Amino acid sequence: MEFRGPDGIGHYTGPQLPTAWGPDKNVAWKTPIPGKGWSSPILVKGLLILTSAVEKGSDQDLRVIAVDAASGKVKWNESVFVQPPAKTGKMHAKNSLASPTAVSDGELVIVHFGHMGTACYDLGGKQQWATEKYSYDPQHGNGNSPILVGNNVIFSCDGNDKQFLVALDKKTSKEIWKTERNTPGKLKFSFATAQLIEHKGKKLIVSPASDIVAAYDPETGKEVWRVRYPVPGWSVIPRPVYVDGLVIVCTGYVNQHVIAIDPEGTGDISKTNIKWMYKKFAPNTPTPLVVGHDLYTISDQGTMSCLEAKTGEVRWSERLRGRAYSASPILADGKIYVTSEDGIGLVIAADPQKLDVVAENAMKEKTFATFVPAAGALYLRTESTLYKFEQK
Questions:
Q1: pLDDT band at 239 (very low <50, low <70, confident <90, very high)
Q2: Is there a contact between 208 and 190 (Cβ–Cβ < 8 Å)?
Q3: Is residue 3 one of the residues assigned to a domain?
Q4: Backbone angles phi, psi at 38, to 5 degrees
C-alpha cells in the first residue's frame, strides 16, 4: 500500500462509498491526531498508518501513528526522529514536516521525512531500522513519498545542494543503488513521488525532478532515458501517470505544463518523444487521474479539466468550488472524489462530456491529504482529525 492505493493510480474497486460526509454526517468514528502533518493514511491489515510532527519545546518530534480502522482507537504512536530547528530547514507555509505518505508491503511500514530521515516499523510498532544518511539542503520542506519495488524502497532526494534517487533494502536499509540526477537547471528542488510503470514488458521507475523527468532501471538504478521540459520547471510535486502507452507528467512552477511522453528509447529523448503539451490549467500540486482513455487534472486554483489522454485534446475545463486544491483525486464507483484545501469535498461523475458534480460536502477545516477508500468506507485526514465515513 502506498500513496493513492496499492498501485499508486488512485483507483478503488469495492463496496460503494458514501457520497455524503461531514464533521457530523455519516461519521463512523473520528480520532484527533496530534501535531501537524499532511501525509495521507495508508491502510494495512486493519491499521491506518500516518505520520505527524509534534512540537517538543523548540524541537520537532517526528512520529508514526497507527489507528485501528474498525474502532478509530490509536494502537501505537512512536517517535521516529527528534529534530532541532537547525535541521528542519526552510518551510513553505502550505507544507508540513510530515507530508510524505508511508508505504507498506503488508508486513513492514516505511515512513519517510525527506531530508530528516527514513525508518521502518513492523505492524506492532517496533522499529526495524532508521537512517539519517540521506540528508540534503531542503527548500520548502519535504514532500515525495517512498515506493516499494520488489525488495527495495525507493525515494528521491532533490534539494538545493544534492539531487539523487536511492534504493534501500526494505528489511535492512542497506543501500542497493544510488543515482545522481545531473539536473541542468538553476533551481533544483522538487518533491515528486516516483511511479513504477511497465511499458511493452519493460519495467521503469519514472521520477520527475527539476527541469527533467527520467526513467530508471529498477534493478540497477541506471538512467534509461530523460526528457528535459520544454519550459523551465522546478518544485515539481505531481506524480507521473501512465495511460495508453504514454507517460504523463507535470513540469512544476512558474510556467507549468502537462506533457505526454512516449517512453521508448534511451538517452535524451526530449526532441523526439514529447507527444503533446497542455498549459492553460496545468496543476502544480494535485496528481492527475486516469479514467479509461481520459485524463482528469485539477489546477491548484481549482479548475478541473478533462483531456483525451492519447492526443491531449481538451474535452472541457470548469471551475470547482473551493479556495484551492492540493489533494489528489481518486476514482470510485465511476465517480471522482476530491477535496479542496478548505475542506470542500466533491463527488464528480467521470464524464468526458461535461462537469457533473454529484455531491458537495463541507468539512469546515483545512484539508490537504488525499482520500483513502476501503471496504465501503472513506477515510479522510483533516488538519486535526482522522475520520472514517460510512453510509448510514
A1: very high
A2: yes
A3: no
A4: -110, 10
Domain that holds residue 93: 11-389
Domain count, the chain: 1
Whole-angstrom distance, CA of residue 95 vs CA of residue 289: 22
Q: Over the stretch 262-296, which tens digit does the pLDDT of each residue have? A: 999 999 999 999 999 999 999 999 999 999 999 99
List the one residue out of 287, 299, 281, 327 whose CA is nearest residue 94.
Answer: 327
Helix (H) / strand (E) element for 85: namely: helix 85-88
* Residue 1 is assigned to a structural domain of this protein: no
pLDDT digits (tens, 9 = 90+) for 342-355: 999 999 999 999 99
The CATH number of whichever domain residue 383 belongs to comes to 2.130.10.10
Q: Are 213 and 207 a contacting pair, CB within 8 Å? A: yes
For residue 84, what pLDDT is reported?
Answer: 87
Give domain status of residue 4, yes or no. Answer: no
What are the φ and ψ backbone dihedral angles of 221, each rounded to 5 degrees?
80, 0
Q: Is residue 2 part of a domain?
A: no
Q: Which amino acid is at 202?
A: K
Q: Where are the beta strands (DSSP E) in 146-273?
A: 147-149, 152-158, 163-169, 175-180, 195-199, 202-208, 212-216, 223-228, 241-243, 246-250, 258-261, 267-268
